[in-house]
Amino acid sequence: MFRFIGLCLGTLVRLLRARRSLLLENLALRQQLAVLKRRHPRPRLDLLDKLFWVVIRRFWSGWQQSLIAVTPETVVRWHRGGFRLYWKLISKVRRPAGRRQTSKEVQELIFRMVVENPTWGAPRIHGELLMLGFDVSERTISRWMKRASREPEPAQRWLTFLRNHREAIAAMDFFTVPTITFSALYCFFVISHDRRRILHFNVTKHPTSLWIVQQLREAFPFESAPRFVILDRDAKYGLEVPAAVRSLMVNPVRTSFESPWQNGVAERWIGSCRRDLLDHIIAVDERHLKRLLSEYIRYYHEDRTHLGLGKGTPDRRNHSIASGRVLSHVRLGGLHHRYDWAA
After folding, report:
1. Whole-model pTM?
2. For residue 30, how far is the Cα from the chain centroid?
């Protein structure tokens, strides 16, 4: 730093000296530089030395004739390096220019909306994102939609079908219960998807296709049949049961092989019945099991709350708001209870 200041002061002093004296001094300095270059062919220049030649290049046209330590190309390279360094620092300080990148959260949200809503286009998704407070252009959404998979999962397609037609859908299924004599009883039931009501049930030791047809007639009397009935591919149904379902003006919907999740409402009721009742009793015979199932279905309809119904019951149990003493009502011999406010 002191050398640079001394150089600047020396330059100021030389501007005030006579021309002849400057020429002689210049000649003497050049001779000494030539000797120095013979001893040190490649002298080391620090940052201030490089800055000096970059600056003087802008104000003196004859700077190239005075170069001895370095070549003109080296000075030009220094200048270009300084140019790049300057704009690099400017770019870090200023706000980045160009299109703003779409965040990962918005990308995943666009993909999710495309999969969950196959019929939606970019304007609809753009409107939903604006409602959520995301400032994204519609053109950007169109670009990201091209990268999303529009084919929903099979489970999602099936679930959408069930939700849109639940008022017109019923399901039927079998489950077995062991007896005290180690024989098996077959329980048949029909459940409605709308309010999860058990429309019909019965118990038998020897289920046949004709017996199942009779149960369907009892389950849907007086043209009360739903539009669709979901059933699996159990061999007990044979050819007679699907034909009988069609004769009732009902469309039978067969599930895939080994796909109980496609009849999820019926399967969940079987699980609830086992956990709430069958895992705690031993069936003696058909009559005993039928009585227990009748009591359980009554409890299921009137008292038991359901997650799928928003913690309500199939028979729409009223919410009571009162104060005082709470009464306990025994259900299923004490396996379960119902609680109400005392009148």
Report:
1. 0.57
2. 76
